[in-house]
Amino acid sequence: MAPSRTSPHALTAGVLFQLVRGGEAASRAELARTTGLARSTVSQRVDSLLGLGLLAERGGGPSTGGRPPTRLEFDAGSGVILCADLGATHCRLAVSDLGAEILVELPAELDIAGGPETVLAWVQDRFGELLAEAGRTADQVRGIGVGLPGPVELTAGRAVSPPIMPGWDGVAVPAHFAARFPGAPVLVDNDVNVMALGEYWASWRHTVDDLLFVKVATGIGCGIVSGGALHRGADGTAGDIGHVQVPDAGDALCHCGNRGCVEAVASGGAVARRLVDVGVDAHNSRDVVGLVRAGNPQAVELVRQAGRLVGEVLAGAVNFFNPAVIVVGGDMAHAHEQLIAGIREVVYRRSTALATRHLEVARSRLDDRAGVIGCAVTVLEQILSPAAIDDALAEAEAPPEEATA
Amino acid sequence: MAPSRTSPHALTAGVLFQLVRGGEAASRAELARTTGLARSTVSQRVDSLLGLGLLAERGGGPSTGGRPPTRLEFDAGSGVILCADLGATHCRLAVSDLGAEILVELPAELDIAGGPETVLAWVQDRFGELLAEAGRTADQVRGIGVGLPGPVELTAGRAVSPPIMPGWDGVAVPAHFAARFPGAPVLVDNDVNVMALGEYWASWRHTVDDLLFVKVATGIGCGIVSGGALHRGADGTAGDIGHVQVPDAGDALCHCGNRGCVEAVASGGAVARRLVDVGVDAHNSRDVVGLVRAGNPQAVELVRQAGRLVGEVLAGAVNFFNPAVIVVGGDMAHAHEQLIAGIREVVYRRSTALATRHLEVARSRLDDRAGVIGCAVTVLEQILSPAAIDDALAEAEAPPEEATA
């Protein structure tokens, strides 16, 4: 049955659900008062929502005579979300509730170049184990969120020419989950967007409208929040700052084919290569972070310099976008004092005075969990929207279709 | 009396007004059907809106028996907006209706450095004349929109350290209009934001979510539309690209105190100065445009080169923001073939393939009227919002306050 489409202004059950979820109303009486709908209409719609399991009733609000009013609550435990934050060489999987609270999680090594068949089959096996660990079952899964380390075509959940994901070009991720988790919507986005959304949702949404999340790891990328919403751009490539050229930073060859890209001179891999050049053994971001923590002076110097180079690119973004805060995450942020110091040094010097008047440069608060929380939020924003709730209700209440030959 | 605050989800008269204005409902019956409100509630709220003059009734919809239903229409002619798009050396003033349709307009020379007293008194005299020309009176003015060539603190309508507006720093514009147009809200924004909004509203809002509007004139600036809304940034300075340094473009001293800013090497004034260097007489953007139109080869070459320099700055913005379209406006866009060719040349070479797959670089369609139309839209978005309508109704229906003491 085709989902019913209603005006965005109609006070559907989905809208009433938002009012309860957002704390604007906590009883049928408050819903009627807030919306101006008749009490009987409210009750009918609330009953539908109770049937769907998204709202729960708790007895014992203060009585005003007669039957004591019941309190309505959003039941975040009524379903779970599966979250997969996939990087080039490692990943984090998790099960969250419908409030983006992580219930169980698993950090693991991963070779994304193993290809979609191998990687996604492995992810599903781990999802099964994590569900069991959380005491949940597959039929409680309300959605799956996936972050990929490359460009993603959002509507199809398809990887598009991802430079560090051989074998994934054109692969639509959702189909891979259909057999094991049928009916669960699968939402796929770029890993940096997902991290930005997680960070914004968990730590900043109540105080800030415009935020940049910069990931500095094997690659360098940026997630953009404008006016409280993720800005993905016309083709979903917004925040793709890794291949901006940095003036006077040498002409190291980038995997994109150009020279002098910030990713080629300031990523974890680039710093590791420079360390090797000066006789220090390092292969990747984590080696670099380990050396910084151990106080290796070359590593400290090079990470600070990497911060400055990232700052060169961000200085332009700050003039252009005027964010309230830049959040720095990714592997390299574990050496955050040096990295952030380098970024600040250049941004405060190179951006305009007006744009940096109130600018904060902060370390990621969620750290390695930004991605999985972002995966959960990506799914929740979709499945708990008024339109999605109304569609679910229409489907639940439709008479079963007749078998027609 | 304090305005009443209601839930953003309540189906107030203001929301019903939006449904009629947006074409979603055109009668009381359709409003009841769309919203689920009782017919009597709808009628009560529609009557209030008719009383305010924002809706009008037209008889003669198709009858279903009984009294023939009347059609409801938004009456864009029920009030007017005064618009002032002020530049450094010239301006455009206009009177629009409530649909941002320009009724009468006046382009004129202006010396913004004359200071706020002189300039704004002059603007008000012209407003009076334009109103008379349009056959309207001051009591029909529903709002005033002003664009200024410098940074603006939005809430107070105050110019903030504007580099090319001596005497305006800290001046709150709205107070200057209070005596002559009491009660009319005065909304002030940066001229480039206003032009971006006008251009987006008039030509792109139905097809595009993410747009950059680049003004190339005496200064260089950029207005940003993200997800259909103007992105002003945390301090209102978003799009301030004039002082991004362009590599290898020389070290011309900029009025901001730095060297090599794109505004110092690619604005109309910069091109005029370079023309003088090669023995061609030119003082400003318009002289440059005149020379290009007359086929002066040095001017053609230098405008093309200015386009390339602007393109250098935009290439980073395209990677970062991934707009669907870049609209080029401002005086210099009158020499648009050369300017846009230069911009395209660099943007398509320097931005990533993914971010430019569908990117369009287009000339402003509104041309010199983008600013005044944007001023009108800025005011309309505020005064016709549901909350503003509900406040106006509350005020209209409140009993007159008793004189106390």
Give structural attributes:
homodimer, 405 residues, alpha/beta, 5-stranded mixed beta sheet, 13 helices, 39% helix
* Class per helix and strand makeup of chain A: alpha/beta
- Main β-sheet, spatial strand arrangement of chain A: 5-4-3-6-9
Low-pLDDT runs of 5+ residues of chain A are: 1-8
| Helix-strand sequence of chain A | HHHEEEEEHEEEEHEEEHHHHEHHEHH
Largest sheet: number of strands, sense, barrel closure of chain A: 5 strands, mixed
**Tally of separate helices of chain A:** 13
Overall, the morphology of chain A is globular
Oligomeric organization of the protein chains: homodimer
Approximately how much beta-strand content do the residues of chain A carry?
Answer: 15-25%
Measured distance between first and last alpha carbons of chain A:
17 Å
Largest interface: A-B, 58 and 58 residues
Q: Tell me the total number of β-strands of chain A.
A: 14
| Rg of chain A, Å, rounded | 24 Å
Percentage of residues in helical conformation of chain A: 25-40%
The whole-number mean of residue pLDDT values of chain A reads: 88
